[in-house]
Amino acid sequence: APTGLDLPRTTEAILAADGHLVQSWADLNGLKKPGARTAIVAAKGTMVRDSDGNDLIDGIGGLWCVNVGHGRREIIDAIAQQLSTLDFYSTFYTFTHPAAAALAQKLATLAPGSLNRVHFSNSGSVANDGAVRILHHYYERLGRRTKKLVLSRHGAYHGSTYLSIAMTTPPYSKGWSKAEGIVHHLKKPHYWREGADMTEAEFLDALIEDMRTQIEHLGAENIACFIGEPIMGAGGVIVPPAGYHKRVQELCAHYDIKFVADEVVTAFGRLGHFFASEAVFDTQPDMITVAKGITSGYQPLAATLMTDEIHEVISGPDGVFTHGMTYAGHPAAAAAGLANIALMEAEHIPERVRVTGKLFENTLRSLGDIDIVGEVRGSHFMMGIEFVRDKASKALFPEALNIGMLVARKAQEKGLIARPLGHILILSPPLVLTEVEIARIGSILRDSILEVMRDLPSLNR
Ligand code: PLP
Known about the structure:
Strand content: 5-15%
Shape: globular
Order of helices and strands: HEEEHHHEHEHEHHEHEHEEHHHEEHEEEH
CATH superfamily of the largest domain: Type I PLP-dependent aspartate aminotransferase-like (Major domain)
Distance between the termini: 64 Å
CATH class of the largest domain: Alpha Beta
CATH topology of the largest domain: Aspartate Aminotransferase, domain 2
CATH architecture of the largest domain: 3-Layer(aba) Sandwich
Helix content: 25-40%
Bound molecules: pyridoxal-5'-phosphate
Structural class: alpha/beta
Strand order of the largest sheet: 4-10-9-8-7-5-6
Radius of gyration: 22 Å
């Protein structure tokens, strides 16, 4: 019987077909140039293979998501087994199915505090969009109809639906429209760039003061929630000053504003714990959103976790929860999530990350001695390298130089995929990297940066 899997094999054939595919978050014009696109055709463990037969270390873990590594039979078999028993049923109306139910229960046991209720969706963007929708509905039901505004931050990335892009840092929606009038952006908590002439403690005080001022200005009675990534990811891997999230949550509690943690990247082991909110940042969110590592990317799945208290209100009498997506909690995705978590537990992956992730972090930090490396930042398997033209002034290279892309291209030639983001290079590899692979990534990055630096005529030192 036809399988539909008569796939193009050569690079030429793949890219000819790919002319019809619109990539995401890409310079679509730049992609028209020969050699701009990379087709990945196979993957195993921490490695991927491109269509020219090159084996590359997956330094970005798919897209911050292939936490247990590629090709794990346990997950693939669980998906196949689930599909052969129940290919699809929804969690709409009165229906449920065992895989979604069991995964919701499992997440409730892993999540901190009373985050015992789980609404599934298909992407992190939708989980965040849904968090706000659910809170709006919650306040409607409480008769507090003005409580609709969202506090986010400059530098945040919360997705690209109409609402989640509005919660994302404003430069990312340049040239596009977004939900207007709902989101207000607080200061970016990046001490190295924004905290000139202050101690880190003073910088933290200033951030909290900025938040307090914005709340007073907008009126707490008009604000539904604060949303924040524990460590900002796609905005440049920004670790806030120690104690920041706790102070933010205290301020939220003071003003009766819900605290939503976007753990799309930080959950499922990347920082050494299933959830980072409590274990790493000492906070108890009212909601946590997750995606990516929940299935290690083997299936699309996201979730919005909420407290019993929020659930109590939205499940009270006289109302219908008019929110949800057909494929949310898809049996195959839920099975992937269950198998992924079981594998992480059996192999103690979060615990191992506390050791190997620290080694990865320190290996990357050691690149800080290179002239054009301004800051190496992040934690465990979530790292960013910011390049500067001048270390003392932190002055950047001209944007057109695309320094991150230059280093990423060089690294790819040497067998490592890293993700360029303007003048930053991001690394978010699978959590199962070995010590040897970590050392290899360190040396590829050092060689790549040094070679790019040597080739820059303006840096002819
Ligand atoms: N939130 C964070 C912190 C993310 O990093 C991302 C994606 O990178 C999202 C939300 C959006 O998730 P998705 O791309 O699955 O919609």
